[in-house]
Amino acid sequence: MEPDEWTAYVPSGERQVEDPWLLTTGTFRAPEPMEWETVSHPEPELLWSGTGNVTVEAAGHVWLVPPALGIWLPAGMPHRVKASAGTVTYATFLNPGLTTSVSPTVTGIPMSRLLREILLHNQREEMPDEARLRLQQVGVDLVRPVQAASLDIPLPKTPELRSVADRIIADPADDRTTEEWARELGLSGRTLMRWFQRDTGVSLTQWRILVRVRRALIDIAAGTPVVAVSRRLGYANPSTFIDLFRQVTGHTPAAYFRSVSGLDDAAPLSAVPRPTVS
């Protein structure tokens, strides 16, 4: 399989990294909105994006993948990937027999400029075997869990609630109230609140804030000013959005990106602009 020629996801059970190699990276592109079937791999996978909107569903949660962060998927973890039109996504597989497990659970990985360049250089360049192994070892050493707030969003298990969740993820600015969603489902507002809390551990209102903040991370990392992001998500007052962002992540948008180890020099293939409020 040639680099940059992936048009489908890797089938379940297909080994990607043979001894003595430590890792390999493939590229797949979505010229139009795409959704791949649920799949698992015998090797751990680091999924990261170059451009576009990518989501990963695994272990009953959904992760939004901003350009500055990757998603670590342990070996054998079933997952489903969705990508918006124009997305470029990378899948880096690690040799489970020759590398130490980064995490036994799905987690975020800071994608510093150095880590990106190492993974891409390994993917694209010819070099002696010894040099490639040294390069790959440095890449493995840089794959470490994020220390800032988690990017995962718990998904409801009840089918009716899942349909609501999917629509909110598709349009985080949807401002329908709990009562309005309940009427649409033929439920009382109290029942909807109780079911949503039971399935996700948070209220529908809190859950929608989580979705908006995670979506904001993608837009801010792409260089969209915080004011524009807040308006796009339905907040007329940017300070309201910034306060909610701080409640979820513990930081303002600008401080969040600084707080994640390695993200001060993290970037997609073109540099990620710093968050701005203009």
UniProtKB/TrEMBL annotation:
Keywords: DNA-binding, Transcription, Transcription regulation. Gene3D superfamilies: Homeodomain-like. Residues 162-259 form the HTH araC/xylS-type domain. Pfam families: HTH_18 (PF12833). One of its GO terms (molecular function) is sequence-specific DNA binding. SMART domains: HTH_ARAC. InterPro entries: Homeodomain-like_sf (IPR009057), HTH_AraC (IPR018060), HTH_AraC-typ_CS (IPR018062), RmlC_Cupin_sf (IPR011051). PROSITE patterns: HTH_ARAC_FAMILY_1 (PS00041), HTH_ARAC_FAMILY_2 (PS01124). Transmembrane segments: none annotated. This is AraC family transcriptional regulator. It comes from Streptomyces uncialis.
